[in-house]
Design a protein that fits this description.
The chain has ten helices and 14 strands. By secondary structure, the protein is α+β, with helices and mostly antiparallel strands. Among the domains are: about 50 residues, Uridine Diphospho-n-acetylenolpyruvylglucosamine Reductase, domain 2; about 90 residues, Enolase-like, domain 1. Helix 3 packs antiparallel against helix 4.
Length: about 260
């Protein structure tokens, strides 16, 4: 590690002001940033913790029926408090990492980092979620912009994530056994106006929607509707854990399982 300043503001306004200082970086649960600091892959001069801001923690249901989750809400709270309102999202949160990760990691930190194998991006994209910041609202379709890349501006903080609740939904994850990240993960959400399918862990471009499956499932919501579809291996991650062709195959298999489990 190295020397840096540390601030723990208790309001969003104070956090935004602290992040305006030179070389400051927001700190959520620290599940990615702290290891990066230890390996000297990142070296901000000031860390601004978001974990002491009460307005950023909690799960509620809005008047329009959307499940609203504060940006600094840890995974364990999402798993417990969203179980009655959005069971598929709660189940996803309950299976992230291990107990230490679930108690420290936050939904806002995960979405801000946008790791290509993280689970929450698939849930947000499949749900057509809205990412609310201190400055604006961003639709999930516009938010995710590639590996570790989002629409967030420098110093912008995720204050809330709003999930429209689908008629049916399920998340299927094929885990990398050591990290419990998604080697491939598929979130399927069925709404009155159609089906959304989002895939994480597979593509070199990060989370994406499988639109061919969405069209097929919107016409016939059954695993059999996917029979004639295939996912190209081009552009899929190819590493020691699995080839691009293997991940492409998993996308179809996991989508079918998710539909069957809805």
């Amino acid at each position: 590690m190295y020397a840096f300043e540390f601030e723990r503001p208790d309001t969003v306004e104070a956090a935004v002001a602290a992040l305006k200082t030179e070389d400051a970086q927001a700190l959520g649960g620290g599940q990615t940033l702290i290891p990066s600091l230890k390996q000297r892959l990142a070296s901000p001069s000031r860390l601004v913790s978001l974990t002491a801001i009460p307005d950023l923690v909690g799960v509620c249901v809005a008047d329009d029926g959307a499940v609203c989750i504060g940006g600094a809400t840890p995974h364990v709270r999402v798993a417990a408090d969203a179980a009655g309102s959005y069971p598929a999202l709660a189940a996803l949160a309950a299976n992230i990492g291990d107990p230490a990760v679930r108690n420290r990691g936050t939904i806002g930190g995960s979405l801000a980092n946008n790791d290509p194998s993280a689970c929450y991006p698939a849930a947000a994209l499949a749900s057509g979620a809205t990412i609310v910041t201190n400055a604006r609202r961003i639709a999930a379709d516009a938010y995710f912009q590639g590996l570790f890349t989002t629409a967030l501006d420098e110093g912008e903080i995720i204050t809330e994530v709003r999930f429209p609740v689908p008629e049916a939904a399920h998340y299927q994850k094929f885990e990398q056994p050591a990290s419990r990240f998604a080697l491939t993960g598929v979130f399927v959400a069925k709404y009155g106006d159609g089906v959304r399918v989002a895939v994480t862990g597979a593509s070199e471009d990060g989370v994406f929607r499988w639109t061919e499956a969405e069209d097929a499932l919107s016409a016939d919501f059954s695993a059999e509707a996917l029979a004639e579809l295939s996912v190209p291996a081009d552009g899929m991650i190819n590493d020691l854990h699995g080839s691009g062709a293997y991940r492409a195959h998993l996308v179809k298999v996991l989508t079918g399982r998710a539909v069957a489990a809805c």
